[in-house]
Amino acid sequence: MFSEIIVNVQTLEKRIAIMEDNRLVELFAEKKEQDVLTGNIYKGIVKNVLPGMGAAFIDIGLSRTAFLHYKDIEMNLLPDRKKNHPSKKDSSKITDLLNPGQEIVVQVKKDPIGKKGARVTGKLSIPGKFLVFIPHHSKVALSRRITSSAEKNRIRGILNRLKAPDVGLIVRTDTESIGEEDFIQEYNGLKKTWNLISKQIKHAKPPCCIFDENDLSYTLIRDLFGSNVDRLVVDDKKLRNSIISQLRNISPELIDRIELYNEDSPIFDAYGIENEIEKIFKSRIDLPNGGNITIEQTEALVSIDVNTGSFTGNRSYDETVKQTNLEAASEISRQIRLRDLSGIMVVDFIDMSNEQDQDEVFNLMKNALKRDRATNKIYPFSPLGLVEISRKRTRPSLLLTYSEQCPYCNGTGRLLSRDSVAVNIIRRLKRVKFVIQNKAVKIRVHKNVKLFFDDHPEILKDVENKVEIISDPELRYNEYRIFTATDNKEITSEYYT
Questions:
Q1: Helix 149-162 vs helix 180-203: angle between axes, to the nearest 10 degrees?
Q2: Residues 168, 74: Cα–Cα separation, whole Å
Q3: Least confident of 1-5, 16-20, 222-226
């Protein structure tokens, strides 16, 4: 299987597409307005200490102070408080450790939600590809999914010889059969990162972020780009250089697999990804043989229905049903990863009377889901002919990332968000840049989208044309029309293909 990662960088959004044999199987989006903070390390200032709550509120430079509970305080990061630590069970003693105005280093456990600030901890950790580096600790802990006793002993032996006494390590699931040299490179890279953080702890002026775990290049290297990936293509030179710089300390052998995309057409168009993304938000997916599947998401579960559609088969009815279900099982496995479906999923395959056919469909789907990085479990056909799947969410779903609550139906439906509409417009302008070359353009949009452009004029900085954004009361929220300013000629869809 040929595996590649395609990265698209824009002013408001960065996107990562994972391809397997030229098919899109996963999509990650990092939006400027939806920054993820979990894992970031901050040097903050204690604002309030509340012994009645056993907690303190920390200014880490965000709009709202962060919440730190007594049990999450790391004593080793309070150098002037090392003696006579109060009991960890008595949270009212928090005033013995923290005072307003005091500097403190914390890491975000939970992102801000609504009116609540971030939840933080003083117990720091730095995740890598194979290991999680924990300063001021000493134990080595292994993932429960590593079940072989011999493998556990091998890994413990390597790491106990490698690590410093005041460093703890957690071994991640993907480390089985990893060689000693890989562990050494990873450990040295994490140690170097910790040394840089330590310097920031000493010298940075709070409140400030001293380690951004969610930096795209760091996420790429840690979670996605490994020896199993044949090629990484990036359309941004700065990001490519950042990835190469970090790989030199961890996996230098992967550097030759990185390519810079320099063509005129947008990278996601060139790889056929943009068309695939548009299909993600449709409930119906057509199968190659004429059948189809329908995906419906609710708050409690996801229901997936399989239909033969226009497929009539060439032989028996049983063979037609089996062929449709096999194609559906493969496509459903891909859609689960691509849409990041999670929680409880119920798949209603077309009824099959033959148990051997059921086993064949089930095993195909089970093997396909083994490539999924998220924890999942699939259960065999029930007496009603249903297959149930449970899956842990790994990131915000694409539906939530690319949409927002509909103001016209009190939140029962969703619309493409304003920033997503704006990004689509920028992509359209880039696609037709040869048609509108050196011409001023007018773009008619919904009034809310115009307000977004007014608030974020920087998103037009990469557009070479003079652009005027006009509010049009006749347009729906996600609709827009592009015209050349001099002759008022509309740039219709025929120019986009």
A1: 50
A2: 14
A3: 222-226
- How far apart CA 82 and CA 136 sit, in angstroms, is 13
Longest dimension (CA), the chain: 81
Chain-centre distance for alpha carbon 471: 33
Token duo for residue 21: 């044999």
**Overall average pLDDT of the 253-280 stretch:** 90
Supply the DSSP symbol for 221: I
What distance in Å separates the CA atoms of residue 361 and residue 328, rounded to the nearest whole number?
A: 9
As beta bridge partners, residue 167 has: 135
| DSSP letter assigned to residue 373 | S
- The contacts of residue 157 (CB under 8 Å, 6+ apart) are none
The pLDDT, as a whole number, for residue 381 is 94
3-state secondary structure of 292: strand
Q: Is-contact 462 236, C-beta < 8 A? A: no
Amino acid letter for position 279: K
DSSP 3-state of 102: coil
Spell out the long-range contacts of 235-241 with Cβ–Cβ below 8 A and sequence spacing 24 or more. 235/7, 235/8, 235/9, 235/260, 235/261, 235/262, 235/266, 235/267, 236/7, 236/9, 239/7, 239/9, 239/14
β-partners of residue 249 are none
Q: Give the Cβ contact number of residue 168 at 10 Å.
A: 16
What does R_g of the chain's alpha carbons equal in angstroms?
26
Local confidence band at 358 (pLDDT 50, 70, 90 cut-offs)? very high
Alpha helices in 145-300 (DSSP H): 149-162, 180-203, 216-219, 237-250, 267-270, 273-280
Q: Using an 8 Å Cβ cutoff, are 221 and 247 in contact? A: yes
CA pair distance 55, 71, nearest whole angstrom: 9
Report percent pLDDT > 90 for the chain: 37
- Residue 406 scores a pLDDT above 70: no
State the CB neighbour count (10 A cutoff) for residue 368: 19
* Residue with the larger pLDDT of the pair 88 and 453: 453
Residue 336 has pLDDT above 70, yes or no: yes
Neighbouring CB atoms inside 10 A of 471's CB total: 15
Tens of pLDDT along 110-152? Answer: 888 767 889 999 999 998 878 899 998 889 988 877 778 888 8
If you average pLDDT over every residue of the chain, what do you get? 85
Q: Which residue has the tokens 């037709």?
A: 432
Residue 401 sits at the vertex; the CA angle it makes with 397 and 403, to the nearest 5 degrees, is 115
